[in-house]
Amino acid sequence: MNLDIALEGISIGSLEIRFYSLMILSGIGVGVIIAQREAKRYGDDPDHVINIAVIGAITAIIGARLYHVFDRDQWPYYSQNPGDIIKVWNGGIGIFGALIGAMLGLMLYVWWVNSTATRKSSRGHRRLGMLRWLDIGAPAFLVGQAVGRWGNFFNQELFGPPTDLPWGLPIDEAHRPLAYLAETHFHPLFLYESLLSVLGVVALLWLGRKFASRMMLGDMLLLYMVWYGAERFVLEFMRIGNWKFGAVPMAQIVGAALVFGAIAVMVYRHKMRKSDDTPGEDSVDHGPTRNAERRRRRRTESQADG
Fold first, then answer.
1. What's 178's DSSP letter?
2. 300: buried, middle or exposed (CB in 10 Å: 19+, 13-18, 0-12)?
3. Residues 22-52: pLDDT tens digits?
4. How far is CA 62 from the centre of its chain?
5. How far is CA 46 from CA 32, 40, 51, 214, 230, in A?
6. CB within 8 Å of 148: residues ≥ 6 apart
């Protein structure tokens, strides 16, 4: 049995393991861990996370691949080679398509669970909140993107213009754009996006805890859209060969729409909330805080001692 190890993956006889696919799976795994911790914080059953991850991974990959395939520059190739559309392991996915697909998968699962609860009307079937679970998924989406982006390293894709910086990424001649065949090192755009996404995860988790009393259901998802939309808008200035609508990269158009749309929705919702004296169903309820729970236990213990 022959063992062949290359940058793209490992070949053991006829079995080929692509690092690109492994990084995507790793991103899903880390996202599951984050989502389970968030589900516990929100007082929901973390067991739902695995089910959502399985469905969401399938719909996210489909959405991501379709976003890439229907790229104006990519479609001429795939229209002539439709069999290559399913070869996701060779690279070529669109994060915005993955986001839409993952959210769709989550919403389908929540709808299915709630439909089951309505039909059976049993104590063992608790209805799930759509916005609550989208909030739980928001930091998980972002950490999944941060880890999954490393698949671009193994496929030698998603890099920026040439650079002499110490962290410049060496790119094989076969993967270089025609205009840069004489260059050897390029900006590791995938790394920049990965690091910014990790920072975004930290920011989301911190904001969710620091301002829990002011948050409304759906705010975490909106903050995710603001962060990632701004992140992609800025990084797209450095991207080579991006999909453009006219002279403007499509990712910048989508990114700007996410940022301004999410901010507008958040401002409107909080403005409407302030005009209402009573908290609505869209208020976040994380249950008792740790400090409150400690105080309750101390009171109980002191009463028992007395």
1. G
2. exposed
3. 888 899 999 999 999 999 999 999 999 999 9
4. 14
5. 9, 6, 10, 24, 30
6. 23, 24, 26, 27, 28
Cα distance between residue 173 and residue 183, in whole Å:
9
For residue 283, give the H/E element and its range: none
Residue spans per domain, the chain: 18-305
Mean pLDDT value across the chain? 83
5 phi, psi to nearest 5 deg: -110, 125
Give the model confidence (pLDDT) of 116-158 as tens digits. 876 665 555 668 899 999 999 999 999 999 998 898 888 888 8
State the alpha helices, DSSP H only, in the chain.
Answer: 19-42, 47-69, 75-80, 95-120, 130-148, 151-154, 189-210, 219-235, 250-274, 290-305
Q: Which of 83, 71, 132 is nearest to 281 (CA)?
A: 132
Paired tokens of 127? 């209805």
- Pull the structure tokens for residue 165: 């910086």
Asked if residues 12 and 3 have their Cβ atoms less than 8 Å apart, the reply is yes
- Grouping H, G, I as helix, E, B as strand and the rest as coil, residue 167 is coil
Q: What is the distance between the alpha carbons of residues 200 and 133, in angstroms, rounded to a whole number? A: 19
Amino acid at 174: A
Residue 282 has pLDDT above 80, yes or no: no
**Phi-psi label, residue 241: left if phi above 0, alpha if psi -120 to 50, beta otherwise:** left
User: CA-to-CA distance for 86 and 268, rounded, in angstroms?
Assistant: 41
Give dist(CA 155, CA 178) in Å, integer.
Answer: 18
- Which residue type occupies 192? Y
Residue 60, Cα to own-chain centre: how many angstroms? 9
Torsions phi, psi of 15, nearest 5? -90, 125
